[in-house]
Amino acid sequence: MAQIRPAIEAIALPEGYRLEWGGDYEKSTRANAGIAQTMPVTFLIMIVLIVMMFNALRQPVIIFLTVPLAVIGVAAGLLITGTTFDFMATLGFLSLAGMLIKNSVVLIDQMDIEMKSGKPPLQAVLDSTLDRTRPVLLGALTTVLGLVPLLGDVFFKGLAVVIMFGLSFAAILTLVVVPVLYAAFFKVPKQ
Length: 191
What we know:
Blueprint: H1 5-9, H2 23-54, H3 58-66, H4 69-81, H5 87-116, H6 121-147, H7 157-185
């Protein structure tokens, strides 16, 4: 679109005629504008709910720092499959963000439980990570396998690629980055 738009708009039209961009471009632009309007409010509500859940600020900060990890897997997936980041891919990324937030909440909640049980802090972080590795990875695997049939669908391919690659990559990184951030934010001593 960016390459052909200037050339097409430079065409002199007879009087009484005008050029409008429609079709998929118009629909995609309208849909993205609608999402852009509601996304800040939605993320604010999510932040408030997670702050209320933990009754603290450090855990929500750790949780929301994990969401950008998905971009690495998403970018790789789009490049490998040659898929464009269209409207359905945007929806896939929003869904992916929710999945990653859930994974991080589960992991951090377990860390908090282990810490409150009286375990040494480093042991609590390690045990929690090991305890939640299987559910996080199996949850990601079942989601990825459930999306495989959508790879052949022209309409849903972007959504499937974004979730499959983003979740696969970020699920593994979450199991590494969340414990490291938790240890840093809560000043867990090395034992």
